Amino acid sequence: MRLISLLMAVIWTVTPLSMARAQQETPPDYGQPSAYSDPVDTYSRDEMVDAVADFFGVTAEASASVLERVFSDLGRPVGYVAGEEVAGAVGVGLRYGEGYLTMKNGEREKVYWRGPSIGWDAGGNASRVFVLVYRLDDTDHLFQRFPGVEGSAYFIAGLGVNYQRADEITLAPIRSGVGLRAGANVGYLAYSRERRWLPF
Hints:
By secondary structure, the protein is α+β, with helices and mostly antiparallel strands.
């Protein structure tokens, strides 16, 4: 009886603490929207809606629907990368792409990316990619590996988005329907100024 009473006392003591901790937990910080409330050197939602619609050849409504989620999570981007990529997979996939980084402050330069992924499909595809860039105060910091953020992938209006993050910099690649592959969201992408064929 004493053992049962002791166990009951421990349960009653620990449970409120566990509940309090659970209530204090917050979702992952992908780049708080408030950090980009200042319109200086950031792109507005309307600017990005028009750019994405023109780039993918979709309606403004389709562009707005996918960007609504991104802007809600991340706020206003400081730049974007617009380009194309090819990908293939047989269980383990590879992805290669190139495009141009355009910053709101006027900087613009060529960018290449590549990386492995793990998926459940096979085959190859080519697609256009529009990447929103957040918290990048120095373009040199873009050139590194960006792992995908677990649980961030979603699909709206024929476009797919997932978040990648490294050193407080967050990227939000948007791909057209032809580019949506199961392996695209599990892995990382490495960005560089020069084309490189080794994915690692």
